[in-house]
Amino acid sequence: MATQDRLRSIADLDVVIDADAHISEKAEQLVPYLDEPYKSMFSGGDKESANVAKPGYPKDELFRALGGKLQWEDVSTAEAEMEAMERFGLDHVLITPTLNLYLPIFSDERYAHALSKAYNDFVVAEFLDDGPDGFKAAITISPLAPDKAAEEIDRLADHPDMVGVIVGSTGVFPPLGDRRYDPIYEALEDNDMPFVLHGATGSFTSAHPFIKRGMKSYGELHVLSHPVTQMFQMTSMLGQGIPERYPDIDIVFQEAGIGWIPFTMYRMDNEYEKRRSEFPTLRKKPSEYVKENFYFTTQPMIEPKQSKYVAWFIEMFDGTDSLMFSTDFPHYDFDTPEELFNMIRNHFGAEEVQKVFGGNAAEVFGIE
Amino acid sequence: MSAERTRHRICSVDELEPGERILKTVSDREIGVFNVDGKFHAVANYCVHAGGPICEGRLSGMVTAEAGEWEWDWAREGEILACPWHGWEFDIDSGEFLADDQYRLITYETEIEDGTLYVVLGGA
Known about the structure:
With 368 residues, chain A is α/β, with parallel strands linked by helices. Chain A has 15 helices and 8 strands. Chain A has an 8-stranded parallel sheet, with helices on both faces. Chain A is 42% helix and 10% strand. Chain A is globular, with a radius of gyration of 20 Å. Chain B has 124 residues and is mainly beta. Chain B has one domain (6-116): Rieske Iron-sulfur Protein, CATH 2.102.10.10. Helix content of chain B is 0%, strand content 49%. Chain B has strands spanning 6-12, 21-26, 29-36, 39-44, 59-65, 72-82, 89-91, 107-113, 116-121. Chain B is globular, with a radius of gyration of 15 Å. The mean pLDDT of chain B is 93. The chains are: A alpha/beta (368), B mainly beta (124).
């Protein structure tokens, strides 16, 4: 670590990129963008009835808003997203979905695919095409029909503000090391796009029902939901040699914080050292692939409040080369830039901090 | 605080009924004043966690429970202020954060004179 050359204030940052800026799309906003027959299916009947006026995304009984103590802001329009950028001093935002992270747990792969297309066209029309230069987005796919997901990537990859591909990673089963997803990886490779994985607590009902049923509150479930999701997917991808098979694809894990990364990769190294014959695709230790091919967004900064421990976590996986600042706004556990900045500014050099706040994301997502 | 003690008019006492709140900018500070059952509380509109607009949050009660008891309860209705951003809950009277008493909201004294409600800055 450099000992000199520290950034003093957040104003010293050249660029701030939010690598996980959610919009809170509403199901009814997507209806005009749906392909047939779904569009017509939502145009008639008694609007008060379930699933008549709008798609019914999965729900659960948990107290998300704590009876109104939490007031999640509505970021379903370009204006609201611009306000968020201004509030937090963000130069670019990677727009990510909320409801459409649930697509992996849908029963019908045809319907899930139609919703992913409608959502993507909604984002292009209502955010990207008339929005400010700072708006970027990831193409949202459903993993249920991988060949169709690959078509969706090909359809939109040339849009100048579509800079990656995102999938809700909770509920992708079998997990992402399975060969059925080869068409998705091939499309990512052909279009030179990063692959972004984002968990969804609301998908646990279906994805990991025993964990959902065992955790009595949203809080208990949320301790586990994001890191368990990402550990499950990362272990599968490493175990099945995805970064060896597709070395040019950058893979981005969002919203699980930092602590799970060294834990998972060193645990996997241990298995590899003792049981190498079960991982014959790998040519080096799993941790080396993590450092070279995998990227991570920072939120939620829930590690120990002592910044030196946060710095140790980051050093354990060469994190200044792979971390990307993210807010997760407007979700209840969002981070402000200050929270991350104050944790790392005294432990890393100016150049390293600049990379975490913008340089790494600019490189992975091709943002100029 | 070293600054000089200054008093700033918020409103007439009649304008702020029990259960109501008012948000005012006083000397460049946004301050929320709450009437909780006739007692006034002035709080900076700045959550000590991440700077959220605490005075716009829900003022309600808190869930309570005794270890080993089946029943949970709701207590202190009207005395607990929650930040709309991340849900941090504070005792509006003491300003204390319920989950860790190292954190405390910025609160101000209030005064009433001739039916007018004032907030007092500095001079403490």
